[in-house]
Amino acid sequence: MDAMKATRSQALTWRFGQHYLWNGADAVEDVVRRVGAVATWPADPELAVGRRMTAPHHGTVDRALADGTLIRTWSFRGAVHLMATDTAGDYLALRCAGRQWERPSWRQYYHLEPAHWPGLRETVRAALAEGPLAPAQLGARVAEDPRFRHLGSCFDAHDVTFLKPFAWQGDLVLGRNPGGQLVLQRPPSSWPGLPPLEEAGHAAVLAYFEAYGPATAEQVHYWLGEGLSAGRRRISRWLAELSGDLVEIDVEGTSFLHLRRHVDALADTATARTLAFLPGHDPWLSGPGTAHPWLIEPGRRPVASRGANLVVVDGRVGGTWKSTEGRILVIWFPEAGEPPRGGLEGEAARLSRFLGEALELSVFRR
């Protein structure tokens, strides 16, 4: 049987909807759960989430962190991301798969053997059970245990390397830091813990196609392999084991994989003009990667990699934008064709409402 055929425009229109960019979500955790993770710095998570909400307003991310439906933790590429509390374990379990803390270099540098980790993790959890602590405070508490006295200085806000395995294993998350200082705390009471690795791997692969399909196996390797160091052989095996949930489709002559349950929805998707002002490091581009030729011209990749705010038109980067001195300044790329003035004005109005100030739109070609 021939593979189902779809156009690139169909695929990107369908994905636009899956990202809640067409019709917004009602709950902030629905947005974050769908896209997998939202970068927090130097990105703007409020804007990344707000653009995907039915009724966006500032403070929704902070409230979700306070009520425990979201967590902030180190995950993809070692950076801090927002994640939905109920599904974060799927990704963190993959990040733990490499067991970095058992490597000879770690054992020699920290004078810490794998057999010592259960006791150390228990000590960390006990210290944080009494409330949030700065890294130095946590280090001081850990050093009270004679077994770990030599590790007190390793809990240093200037070098978070040693803290990350505790985050990956669910022993701590990042707390609210109004003064800009790093704060560590226990996960919320709703935290379900890490699932078994195989279960987590299957869930993470399927979640990727839910948000970023149609996709190639290489794009899954980029997200879960390069992003979480889950291991190429392991990811390939998970893809093979999920072959019943995935179907091969032809997108303009190139083979892609798509969730079987969404094939009909993709086939029925009518190409439509889409446009969004997205912040730098937004999941729309970070999930598939800035090298994805569908989404951005190769010559424009440095712009995205540096974290510029992006104008996405029909799924592709068509320019950049910034808010300055009462204006929204759009730099439009010539290769994107004629600027869709009506769509840009609509997005400018949306952004003005979200920021709470009237902003005049200015468009320049470059």
Can you describe this structure?
It is a single chain. With 366 residues, this protein is of the alpha+beta class. The chain contains 16 helices and 13 strands. Strands 9-10-11-12-13 form a 5-stranded mixed sheet. Strands 1-7-8 form a 3-stranded mixed sheet. The chain starts with a strand and ends with a strand.
Strand-pairing-aware structural class: alpha+beta
Task: Flag low-confidence runs.
Answer: none
Question: Quaternary state, please?
Answer: single chain
Q: How many beta strands in the DSSP annotation?
A: 13
In spatial order, strands of the major sheet run 9-10-11-12-13
What is the H/E order? EHHEHHEEHHHHHEEHHHEEHEHHEEEHE
| Rg, alpha carbons | 22 Å
Beta-strand percent range: 15-25%
